[in-house]
Write a structure and sequence with these properties.
Number of helices: 2
Strand order of the largest sheet: 1-18-17-16-15
Structural class: mainly beta
Shape: globular
Length: 382
Amino acid sequence: MTAVMATAALLLTVSCSSDDGGSPGQGGSAASSTTGSGSSPSRRAAEETPPAQGSVKVLRTVAEGLNTPWGLAPLPDGDLLVSSRDEATITRVDGETGKKTELGEVPGVSPAGEGGLMGLALSPDYASDHMIYAYFTSASDNRIVRMLYDGQKPSGEQLGAPDTIFRGIPKGFIHNGGRIAFGPDKMLYAGTGESGDTGLSQDKESTGGKILRLTPEGEPAPGNPFPDSPVYSYGHRNVQGLAWDAEQRLFAAEFGQDTWDELNAIKPGDNYGWPEVEGKSDDAKYHNPLAQWGTDDASPSGIAYAEGSIWMAGLKGQRLWRIPLNGTAASADPQAFLEREYGRLRTVVSAGGDKLWVTTSNTDGRGSPKDGDDRILEVQVS
């Protein structure tokens, strides 16, 4: 009995300290599809429910030899910008040849643990303003900055000085969130973590353990659910995936602790339960996930929408999950692809139509890098 209790305590410590699954744990639970409380009826006008079974085909390796890639932002000409979490650099990758050109290093980044230079997003007006947004961990907090990109300057000198538009997001060695994305409304959304302080998630005065919605200038966006607040939803543990479907509905992936990782349909102002609940709950005041996974099977980071489904990267799970949608519910059981073929998967971004960009994350200190790691893959899905 003593040995069992000791093992359980060890597993609790591992789960609490490492969202990215640095150490093997017990579990391996199958994915579970659940309809979230508070989800609205499907709007069927322009939608078709995707088939229960999908497919994935890796078309090519776009680039390799990347160090701790985290954020990925497609440029209008088909090239890609990728951030290095630990080197604090942004690199341009030629979408055809894979040639890498370093734009420069982002000053003020303080990489440690799960923190560093993370999410990237292009301004909604990128064609005219050439602004790149980035989420990073500084010496004192997590913050969001924007920088002018001037591709006419020499390699390494193409980034303008960062303009901090939002600061004060709690930082920690773990649970720094980090994903940013502009929504269909041209507002900036940011997924944050509770930095290991679980009490922050339920505190609507804190920006930790939240999804934030901001103007491009970093102010609370008009129409947010709480007056003069950037908080869009709360009760999250560590959000690293944001994506919208064809009907402009927001979905988010977040890490669980010991039992359930989650994919959530986000409703403004709703409470997603952490730390009071993990995964599905019978308490109606918490918005249930639309799908959940055992933590060995997922540890989800980036997500993207394509072909009627959400596609979710798994770090510890080392696989790409497909979650077919019917409105804000899963229309069939989640389906896993690329299982342990490329190691840890960090980011998934739509490449248009039935194609995705997928990055691996084997050089982040928790993987087992192989020759060529880390890499960007072009994937065809259905």
